TrEMBL record:
GO terms for cellular component: interstitial matrix. The lineage of its organism: Eukaryota, Metazoa, Chordata, Craniata, Vertebrata. Gene3D superfamilies: LCCL-like domain, von Willebrand factor, type A domain. Keywords: Disulfide bond, Extracellular matrix, Glycoprotein, Neurogenesis, Repeat, Secreted, Signal. Promotes matrix assembly and cell adhesiveness. Plays a role in spinal cord formation by regulating the proliferation and differentiation of neural stem cells. InterPro entries: ECM_Assembly_Org, LCCL, LCCL_sf, VWF_A, vWFA_dom_sf. It comes from the Eukaryota. This is Vitrin. Binds dermatan sulfate and chondroitin sulfate. The keyword Disulfide bond applies. Residues 199-214 have a biased composition (Polar residues).
Length: 651
């Protein structure tokens, strides 16, 4: 009997083990079932975040979104009017080859600051109704995102009573409650209380029991709406003056000002942060800057403005490319705090010359550089030498002196007549004197008018960007083919030193023997590479040496077409004595205001070089004994051209 019982127990145990193993095997088979693969939606470079309704999504961007035609607004946090993929490149999450990104919508900002990053220039925007941020396209563990995006209608997104809408399903996150609908109250309405119900939880993944509620943007009211007729409740809210935050503004984006094109200047304000100015006057100074910013209409196609505060030492508050509209600029000015210390204006001007007007700081090259120096009383260091260097660098210095030294205070002024020693020209155009800080607002419009008058910004013209240079080249038989190529290299080396364009320095060339030939005029080429190629292409002529006739020909065929506001420079290269008279043509050139440099080689006659050259001859006539030594004259000629330019009277 006992044996039978044991056998039955063993059979039961055996059956239990079989069932247990079978169940485990079945569970393993179930775990082997693959989940459906997530297909990442692809979008084009021009798709804006505001056109996508989903509050959070993963997308794949194509290559090539670094192109400037795809606009981005903001830095790190972007206005939803931005291209999603271009913003991803700007943020550094993607490069120009494209890839996957995770996009999350956030609340609208009161302002967006533009910046240059990763090959993309983002723009500033005063405000926008919705923003987004970007991170790497790897979803958090357990979170799934839609394989298809929901796009807004191209028509107005404002809902109308009686219409039906497609509900958007947020990404399923294990253990979380559905995201409440965020609503905002329209102006002049009363809050209507809604019944508090809860949406059903999304399906949970196996084994998940945790809850992770989603945070709402600060300052927004949250409403949890139930399964009951959502649209009817929504209609009540709309009637009460509420609209979803995505639909708060249905008006098209106002055109962003690109700035006043009639005032395209790169402008630096040097403001006084010394202790002597006091807090009250410092605030008046900031208000003056804000008024200037408003009056200028800041923008990438117009004026750009940065601020340097000086005291013991200067410091850049923000550079030319930091703020791209007047609104952002005014907000930044308001945040400037006073440094305290001395009024070292000379040191500040040197700082601006060396550091501020650089390409890295937003200097455009095509716009005049203007520095407006504001001084309370008088500087505590000397400004003359620093200002001279600034002027020679092409910076137009304006001086605003507020509450200048009265008679019994002049003994404390380190450098008398400091404003006239600093400004671009001493004709009164660049200097403004204000008797009281409380009268400073009166010069806003006069100052704006002056800095925008680019035709009168004389210091924008430097020795490198303000001339029409005509080369008159001896192509006689005594020169020879090899030496002629050396002469052309000398001409090219000189030309390389100048800023060449149709508005800057222009280059022309004449070759002569007994006869004369215009190789190319001032208006033929407007870029440095084109000029250098044209010089290289000049063919050797060979013949006699009629230098006088060549000068007359250059005056008629070349310099007669020079622009009125250009300095006229003639650089003549010859290797021998002229067969004709050079006195009368040379005098005609001097009389017409053509500054003439005479470069003689080998058998050239020094007495003729001195006659051809402008006065004084020692600064305008050069001689080398061999063609191979011509290159040594390049630095001397350039130095003399610039010395002469910078020594002109400043009136």
């Amino acid at each position: 009997m006992g044996i039978v019982v044991l056998t039955m127990k063993a059979s039961v145990i055996e059956m239990f083990l079989v069932l247990l193993v079978t169940g485990i095997h079945s569970n393993k088979e179930m775990t082997k079932i693959k989940r459906p693969k997530f297909n990442v939606p692809q979008i084009n470079c021009d798709v804006k975040a505001g056109k996508i309704i989903n509050p959070e999504f993963v997308v794949k961007c194509p290559a090539g979104c670094q192109d400037p035609k795809y606009h981005v607004y903001g830095t790190d946090v972007y206005a939803s009017y931005s291209s999603v993929c271009a913003a991803a490149v700007h943020s550094g999450v993607l490069d120009n080859s494209g890839g996957k990104i995770l996009v999350r919508k956030v609340a609208g900002q009161s302002g967006y600051t533009g910046s240059y990053s990763n090959g993309v220039q983002s723009l500033s925007l005063p405000r926008w109704r919705e923003s987004f941020i970007i991170s790497e396209g790897k979803p958090p563990k357990g979170v799934t995102y839609p394989s298809a995006l929901t796009y807004s209608s191209p028509k107005s997104q404002a809902a109308k009573a009686g219409e039906t809408t497609k509900a958007y399903q947020k990404p399923s996150v294990p253990g979380t409650t559905a995201e409440p609908v965020t609503l905002m109250q329209a102006p002049g309405t009363t809050l209507v209380k809604a019944t508090h119900t809860t949406l059903p939880k999304p399906s949970l993944s196996a084994g998940s029991t945790t809850s992770s509620p989603r945070l709402q943007p600060v300052g927004h009211r949250s409403w949890d709406l139930g399964e009951t007729d959502l649209w009817k409740l929504g209609s009540v809210l709309l009637d009460a003056g509420f609209v979803p935050k995505e639909e708060l503004s249905t008006q098209p984006l106002e055109p962003i000002s690109q700035g006043d094109p009639n005032c395209k200047v790169d402008l630096s304000f040097l403001i006084d942060g010394s202790a002597s100015i006091g807090k009250r006057r410092f605030r008046i100074q900031k208000q003056f800057l804000a008024d200037i910013a408003q009056a200028l209409d800041i923008g990438p196609a117009g004026p750009l403005m940065g601020v340097v505060q000086y005291s013991d030492n200067p410091a850049t508050q923000f550079n030319l490319k930091t703020h791209m509209n007047s609104q952002d600029l005014k907000a930044a000015i308001e945040k400037i705090t006073q440094r305290g210390g001395l009024s070292n204006v000379g040191r500040a001007i040197s700082f601006v010359t060396k550091n501020f007007f650089s390409k890295a700081n937003g200097n455009r090259g095509s716009a005049p550089n203007v520095a407006v120096v504001m001084v309370d009383g008088w500087p505590t260091d000397k400004v003359e030498e620093a200002s001279r260097v600034a002027r020679e660098s092409g910076i137009n210095i304006f001086f605003i002196t507020i509450e200048g030294a009265v008679e019994n205070e002049k003994q404390y002024v380190m450098e008398s007549n400091f404003a006239n020693k600093a400004v671009c020209r001493t004709n009164g155009f660049y200097s403004l004197s204000v008797q009281s800080w409380f009268s400073l607002h009166k010069i806003v419009q006069p100052l704006v008018k002056r800095v925008c008058d680019t035709e009168r910004l004389a210091c924008s013209k430097t020795c490198f960007n303000s001339a029409d240079i005509g080369f008159v080249i001896d192509g006689s038989s005594s020169v020879g083919t090899g030496n002629f190529r050396t002469v052309l290299q000398f001409v090219a080396n000189l030309s390389k030193e100048f800023e060449i364009s149709d508005t800057d320095t222009r280059i022309g060339a004449v070759q002569y023997t007994y006869e004369q030939r215009l190789e190319f005029g001032f208006d033929a080429y407007s870029t440095k590479p084109d000029i250098l190629n044209a010089i290289k292409s000049v063919g050797y002529w060979s013949g006699g040496t009629s230098t006088g006739a060549a000068i007359s020909f250059a005056l008629e065929q070349l310099f007669k077409k020079s622009k009125p506001n250009k300095r006229k420079l003639m650089i003549l290269i010859t290797d021998g004595r002229s067969y004709d008279d050079i006195r009368i043509p040379a005098m005609a050139a001097h009389h017409k205001g053509v500054i003439t440099y005479a470069i003689g080689v080998a058998w050239a006659a020094q007495d003729e070089l001195d006659i051809i050259a402008s006065y004084p001859a020692k600064d305008h006539a050069f001689f080398v004994d061999e063609f191979d030594h011509l290159y040594k004259s390049v630095p001397k000629v350039i130095q003399n051209i610039c010395t002469e330019f910078n020594s002109r009277p400043r009136n």
